[in-house]
Write a structure and sequence with these properties.
By secondary structure, the chain is mainly α. Helix content is about 75%, strand content about 0%. It has two domains: about 45 residues, no CATH class; about 55 residues. It is flat, with a radius of gyration of 42 Å.
Length: about 140
């Protein structure tokens, strides 16, 4: 009697999916140095409050007195509000550039259309002057 084809193609030594995942996990864990998960979690959460206070203390000792006031003064000077005249001058110059660009493109298109029309009229005049031409 013939054997079952299913039984003949099944490998009895084949691992289950769960055991394959466990083996992969064990192999990956063996590649990592000890305490990797703890270091990764600490890096993801960032420094603790005590560490931030230590950073501030060291940073404050590194700055000269009056640093914050100098920074604020420089920021106020840099963000000085432009006058109405400077706004108007900027707007007028942008409008002039845009108008120049529009006029340049328009003139170029008109010149190209004139050249095409002139060439077509010359062709028609030539055809009208030639009695043997059958172009009309």
């Amino acid at each position: 009697m013939r054997e079952s084809t299913f039984a003949s193609t099944t490998n009895l030594n084949m691992k289950t999916e769960a055991s394959a995942w466990r083996a992969l996990n064990a192999h990956a864990a063996a590649q990592l140095r000890g305490g990797f998960a703890d270091r990764a979690l600490r890096a993801a959460h960032g420094p603790a409050a005590v560490t931030w206070r230590a950073f501030f203390t060291v940073g404050a000792r590194s700055l000269r007195p009056g640093f914050a006031e100098r920074v604020l003064r420089a920021a106020r000077v840099a963000t000085d509000i432009p006058s109405l005249a400077s706004h108007f001058a900027l707007s007028a110059s942008i409008a002039a550039v845009c108008l120049s660009a529009v006029l340049f493109v328009h003139q170029r298109n008109v010149d190209a259309a004139d050249a095409r029309n002139l060439a077509e009229w010359q062709r028609l005049v030539q055809a009208a002057d030639d009695p043997d031409s059958n172009m009309l």
